[in-house]
Design a protein that fits this description.
single chain; alpha/beta; nine-stranded mixed β-sheet; 35% helix; 20% strand
Length: 303
Amino acid sequence: MFSNPPFIPAVILLAVAALTGCYTHINIQAYESPAEVTYDLDSKIENIVYTCASWPQPLHADLYLPQKRGLRPVVLMIHGGGWANRSRDDMAGISNKLVRQGYAVLNVNYRFAPKYTYPAQVHDLQQALAWIADNANRYRLDLERVNTWGYSSGAHLAALIGAIDHDNHLAENSNPLPRIRSVVAGGIPSDLRKYTGSPIVMRFMGGDRHEMPARYAEASPVYHVSSDDPPVFLYHGKLDFLVTEDQASDYYEALRAAGIDAELYLHRWRGHMSMFLFGGDAETKAIDFLNRNNSTRQLIAAE
């Protein structure tokens, strides 16, 4: 366990932070933002059942819609909680930020481990993508601009759903699944093969890495990196001892090696939970990343 430093060392740390900067942002792309335009919330439709009637259990989501003309770009929002707890309520704040930028947000719950192990949660998110496709006309959702955003285990799922081959999607889906335009992943466990004996990961996977190495690889976003992956924005705390920094930095390097547009934001004074709770600057830069990859600002200027 780590104890809080006494007052004087804390002051010294703050002074050092002021001199050296609190974060490192790698491969930031130049983006010229036109005059700021924000949108009000048009409506929030709560407790949508996004799964088909034959699903093992009904799963719910909240749909946030901005007051915006034309087609709305979409973010599929995925909460964390070790694949075993928490809820979409955790992502309400980020969802509201995205609405102000003109995004429709489908903020989802999914099935939990240990009752449901991998790949149940991936299949749930495929159902969410199918729901977006089936309801695109009704809510003016732009199927060419569907993105994912998640934190912690939600980041793992957000990246995985962006990287896997959706040609193997479920038979219940009546429409082809939309391709993911870009991914935002905070505090991501990108390579589950690095975990041995972790109760959280074993609960999600249904066993230890030594018992199912191929399954652990398949469940790791870094394993699926290829040249046709969507752009990825990663943000992570350098003091994250639950999901260590290398999970983000190694994934970033793998994406860049494959020629993928990727950015990495590392905050030197954040841990796993504090990066989530106080990640405002990282979230702002992530939204800039989404705007660039979805051409949102250019479309605003044309409206």
